Amino acid sequence: MLAQLPPALQNLKLPLRLRLWDGHEFNLGPEPSVTIVVKDPTVVSSLTHPTLDSLGEAFVEGKLELEGSITEVIRVCDELSHALIDDDEGSRPVRSIHDKATDAAAISYHYDLSNEFYQLWLDQDMAYSCGYFETGSESIDQAQQDKFRHLCRKLRLQPGEYLLDVGCGWGGLARFAAREFGVKVFGITLSKEQLALARERVKAEGLEGQVDLQLLDYRDLPQDGRFDKVVSVGMFEHVGHANLEEYCKVLFGAVREGGLVMNHGITAKHTDGRPVGRGAGEFIERYVFPNGELPHLAMMTAEISEVGLEVVDVESLRLHYARTLDHWSERLEDNLEAAARMVPEQALRIWRLYLAGCAYAFARGWINLHQILAVKPHADGSHELPWTREDIYR
C-alpha cells in the first residue's frame, strides 16, 4: 500500500498517520500522535508541497480532518511542511488597501463574530491582547489584570488625567484605568458588537461619568492635544504599512506636549514585514485578519519618531503572548461543544487553528509583540518622565 503514496511522503519519519477516504492508513513514522484524515482525493497531491496555508485551507473547507490535540497538530504539520518545502518559500511583503470603509469591514469580520464566543475563551474582562505574566504561572484573568496595570504604570497615569484608548475593544483597559487610576477615558472602536457590550459593562460598574466609548475611526480623532495620555493596544496591526505615518501623526496631534503615547502590538520578524511560517501568514490574512499588516519594530519606531514623538522605552512580550495564546487555545478546546452552537463550523475550524498556530508562532519567534512608549516633548525638548523605570515595578 505504501506505493500508493507520493514518493515525497514515503521517506518521512514523522509522528503522523494518513488515513485516506477509502479507509487505508499509512504511518509516516513510529508512534503517530496526529492523524490527517483525507476526505477529498485531491488533497493527497497537495501534501507533497504542504504549506501551512494549504493545509489550513483544506481543514477549514472540510477536505481533511485532524485528529490529536490541536497543539500537537500544529507542531507536526509544521514539521511536515518544513520537511518538504523551503522556509518562507515565495513569501512577499503584504500590501493591502486601507481606507475607512475597508478597515471597518475588516474589523467587523473579525470582531463582530459573536461576543458570547469570545467570552468562552477570553478572560473575565475580555482583553483580546497579550497578557503580562510576572512569573509565568498566573491564570489568564490575573495576567490580563497585570497587563492593564503594567500599561497604566508605564503611562504614569494620575487621577484626573484624560486618557485616549485607541481600539478599546470590550473596554476592559478603559474601565480598569478609570477605576484603579482615577482617570477619564475616551475610547474608540470600529466594532459595533464590541461597543455595545463595552458600554453595558461601563454602565454596570457605574463608570459612565469617567468612561466614554464611541464608534469612531482613528482618522477622525480630534487633533487639539486634549489628551494627557494615549494608549493603543492591538491596533496598529490593522492600520497597514501605507497608513502608519498618518496613524502616528493622529496620535501626535491628539496628545498634549509632555504627554505619553503607548503602542502595544504585534510586530513582524522581518524588517520588510513579509509573512513567515511557510504560509501561516497567508492563512491569517485570508481567514482571520483581512488587511492585517505587521510592521517590524524598526518600521514602527521610525514612523513614531518621524512625526515628532520620542521613543523612550521598548519591551518585548513575545513569550508572554505565546503563554496567553496557550491559555486561549486550551479554553476554546475545552468548550468546543458550546462554541459550535455559537459560530458556524467553518469559523470554529479557523479559530482552532488560529489560536493554537499563533501560540506556536510566538513561541518559535516567527512574530513578536512590543510595547513602545513614546513622549511628545515640550518645545524645549523637556518632559516629565522619571529618571529610571523604578516606579513601574513598585
From TrEMBL:
EC number(s) from the headed UniProt entry: 2.1.1.79
GO terms, molecular function: cyclopropane-fatty-acyl-phospholipid synthase activity
Entry's Gene Ontology BP terms: lipid biosynthetic process; methylation
Residues at the catalytic site: 358
Pfam families for this protein: CMAS, DUF7884
Swiss-Prot/TrEMBL keywords: Lipid metabolism, Methyltransferase, S-adenosyl-L-methionine, Transferase
Name by which UniProt lists this protein: Cyclopropane-fatty-acyl-phospholipid synthase
Phylogenetic placement of the source organism: Bacteria, Pseudomonadati, Pseudomonadota, Gammaproteobacteria, Pseudomonadales
